[in-house]
Amino acid sequence: MAKKKSKRKWSQDVTDKSDAMDLEDGVFKQRSAKKIADSLKASAEHSDRRKTGPFRSAMSMLNFYINRAGRQLSKSRLATLDKAKNELRKDFGKEPKH
Fold it and tell me: In total, how many domains does the chain have?
């Protein structure tokens, strides 16, 4: 018997229902790298379910999204998400990579 394919991907479920933190709806669809970073920071700091520090949790979720979206991301979208990584580093007092 063939396995019935789900219309939703498992990665979307992880993004929507992460046990690490509750994300703001549409966080990764925002146009501003600063808004994405601020939202991820707030979510990570307010989560009591994360297994690591807030910076690592926020950065992991951002990297997870970028890796799972892969080739579907436009160059401009990927650039915005990469800028969001640097904004996250600044927000947490880490040295941004250039």
Answer: 1
